[in-house]
Amino acid sequence: xxxxxxxxxxxxxxxxxxxxxxxxxxxxxxxxxxxxxxxxxxxxxxxxxxxxxxxxxxxxxxxxxxxxxxxxxxxxxxxxxxxx
Amino acid sequence: xxxxxxxxxxxxxxxxxxxxxxxxxxxxxxxxxxxxxxxxxxxxxxxxxxxxxxxxxxxxxxxxxxxxxxxxxxxxxxxxxxxxxxxxxxxxxxxxxxxxxxxxxxxxxxxxxxxxxxxxxxxxxxxxxxxxxxxxxxxxxxxxxxxxxxxxxxxxxxxxxxxxxxxxxxxxxxxxxxxxxxxxxxxxxxxxxxxxxxxxxxxxxxxxxxxxxxxxxxxxxxxxxxxxxxxxxxxxxx
Lengths: 84, 238
Fold this sequence. Notes:
The structure holds 2 protein chains of 2 kinds. By secondary structure, chain A is an alpha+beta fold. Helices cover 32% and strands 26% of the residues of chain A. Chain A has one domain (3-78). Chain B is 44% helix and 24% strand. Chain B contains 10 helices and 8 strands. By secondary structure, chain B is an alpha+beta fold.
């Protein structure tokens, strides 16, 4: 299974790397995980009394360091998707 | 048995056995390597061996359908697997597997059952350990229900730190996500946050504890009660 790396772009434009990555059957699987993970992270922030960080985004890279998906957390705040 | 041999055990239970009880177990104790992901018990299957860890950490992991696994017990050199054997059963309830590789001693479950029936002091010590694991599971339930991810992560790192030599915990984010019951990107963010506050240093596959007292503050009360129970019932945890 291919490995995808979930880099995180924060509100100030800083990119945090994901040295480990995670395996999915395909990009659709990685995107589903991005949706569920973003929902979980947003929910966790809310539970800690913080505002929703819709300015975050996943930048998902494949094993060849190619950017394959940009996933704004705003999608996860506005759209239904797989639950965490 | 010469006392220097007894004290050579790193395992907190074997080390505290009196010579007579140790003599009951030692003929069947076998030193084994415990590689990452090695299954020590499988849910609903008979328990073949109980394991006394010398190094490494094992997790008792409960499962819901669709892969929603979460850790319900953490065992290192302070303890043993097979507490249900101590309670008189022979079948596992959950999976138990190595999440940090190490080594230890294993004993056939039947041999433990026989030894327990022969020695009240052996039974008393191992039952105290069962009680500490019960306390740990209770607090794990509490924090899973009431503590935030960063608090739970800090608690979990302290629990691992208690069970390793030195300040380095060798573990992937993927594994931590199972242990904490959240998806991996959430773990990565929580780790980066603790790292940003100078409490840990994280590299691929390794977390170095830099500020134990600081991590303790992050737990906001989620760490220390089960650890105190271990010290009260058995002795020093580390």
